[in-house]
Write a structure and sequence with these properties.
Blueprint (H helix, E strand, L loop, with lengths): L2 H17 L9 E7 L3 E2 L5 E6 L4 E5 L14 E2 L5 E7 L7 E7 L3 E5 L10 E8 L18 E6 L10 E11 L2 E6 L12 E3 L5 E11 L4 E8 L1 H14 L6 H15 L7 H8 L8 H15 L7 H17 L5 H10 L7 H13 L3 H14 L4 H14 L2 H14 L4 H9 L3
Antiparallel strand pairs: 1-2, 1-3, 1-6, 3-4, 4-9, 5-8, 6-7, 7-9, 10-11, 10-13, 11-12, 12-15, 13-14, 14-15
Helix pairs in contact: 6-7, 8-9, 8-10, 9-10, 10-11, 11-12
């Protein structure tokens, strides 16, 4: 078979996979949210169920709270705000799930752009009146070049059965699994849909887009199951009244394996996120020591990839920057020494918020304007610049950047709220 014909055959197979409703399993739900003072029923996020062995839990995306929440809700804590949160099968009123407590409630976590790296909302289930099949989490990490499927409802086809859209994986990048769609489609509304392997195991949740500096390309950024493992581990130690350390994490994995008959493959990102975050004086040298000590003491193998290396360089530089002992130019020099790119935008955003909290808006502005030279034309970046100017008391420039954000990223909640706070 010649190459053009082979290519056409592959595309036909992918399109068939995308639109064949017979192949789409009964796993999809959508949210129906009823707060004390407002409600959201017009596809406020896709949803699904997961089977963790001894319990079924309900899952949707955290960033649904950006727009589908009361005006005064600013943190990931629904206490006192909610009448009922259901997950329903559209066009079938007999099939629905009534949710219970939010497992990963966090009164300290702000609702905003940073949610995309932790984009799972996980609920207990109060009552289940559906025949929806709960998903099992994949026990294997996906490989670059694999085909995965984003399955759910988009706004464009919300009155039709859910569809499965194939995508090709690029790589894991921090908390994200970067993918490129293999078919042209309008993905608006797909947020919260499960991302599946070819054997219908859960790999992540449809979340956002990220600019990937190593290849200078925007990719769909699936929130991988890395964060979900963190949520489930914290849920397990809370239920079993245990502390958070690598020893209890390994016990959690053993418990999970005994209930699910498979041992999950856990990424270095998960272990680093859980157990290295509180280490003082973060640096490449100290991280290597921590890796060696962890493997010797607990047997857990951890690898330092280029993503983690850039984060560590940034952390070392950040501490000096806070003390006015270095410059933004030196950050570039240090990264080039280790042959890695700048960290992703979210790292700069989080630091800018830290600077604002420290009453250093001038440094935040300097940092974010520098970020704009690296990650150009990123609408959400302008909202953070607006916040920094607002913190400095410059309402004119704050308004300018909020409006600039809304031109490139219409209805971005942070910019909308920022403009309202200025009285505009």
């Amino acid at each position: 078979m010649n190459k053009p014909i082979l290519t056409i055959c592959i595309l036909i197979l992918l399109i068939t996979k995308t639109y064949s409703q017979n192949e789409v399993s009964k796993i999809n739900l959508v949210n129906a949210i009823n707060y004390n003072d407002t409600s959201f029923f017009d596809l406020p996020g896709n949803a699904f169920l997961i089977d963790i062995g001894n319990e079924t839990l309900a899952v949707t995306c955290k960033h649904t709270l950006w727009v589908n929440s009361p005006k005064d809700l600013s943190n990931v804590d629904l206490s006192g705000e909610l009448k009922t949160w259901k997950m329903v099968v559209p066009n079938d009123s007999s099939q629905y799930v009534i949710l219970g407590d939010l497992v990963n409630t966090d009164s300290m976590e702000m609702i905003g752009e940073q949610n995309i790296d932790e984009d799972f909302l996980v609920f207990k289930i109060k009552e289940n009146y559906s025949s929806i099949v709960p998903l099992k989490i994949s026990n294997k990490l996906v490989q670059s070049g694999d085909t995965v499927y984003q399955q759910g409802w988009s706004f464009q086809f919300k009155n039709e059965p859910p569809r499965a859209y194939p995508a090709q994986t690029v790589q894991y990048y921090g908390a994200s699994l970067l993918v490129n769609s293999l078919v042209n489609h309008n993905g608006a509304g797909l947020s919260g849909s499960p991302v599946l392997s070819s054997n219908n195991k859960l790999l992540g949740i449809v979340s956002s887009w990220k600019y990937h500096l190593p290849d200078s390309t925007w990719h769909e950024a699936i929130c991988s199951t890395d964060y979900l493992w963190i949520v489930l581990y914290k849920y397990w130690i809370k239920e079993n009244k245990l502390g958070q350390d690598i020893e209890t994490f390994n016990l959690f994995l053993q418990s999970y394996e005994s209930k699910n008959y498979s041992k999950p493959e856990i990424s270095s990102y998960v272990l680093t996120k859980l157990f290295y975050k509180d280490v003082k004086n973060k640096s490449i040298e100290n991280y290597k020591k921590w890796i060696d000590n962890t493997e010797k003491k607990y047997g857990n193998k951890i690898l330092m990839d280029s993503y983690q290396k850039s984060i560590l360089i940034f952390e070392t530089w950040k501490n000096k920057y806070l003390q006015n002992k270095t410059s933004l130019e030196n950050l570039t020099v240090e990264l080039k020494k280790e042959n890695v790119t700048y960290p992703e935008m979210l790292v700069f955003f989080n630091f800018s918020q830290e600077l604002i909290d420290l009453k250093k808006p001038e440094l935040a502005i300097e940092l974010l304007l520098f970020t704009d030279t690296i990650h150009q034309h990123a609408g959400q970046l302008y909202a953070f610049i607006g916040d920094a100017y607002k913190a400095r008391g410059d309402k004119i420039k704050a308004k300018k950047y909020y409006q600039k954000c809304l031109i490139t990223y219409p209805s971005f909640p942070q910019a909308v709220k920022g403009l309202k706070s200025l009285g505009n």
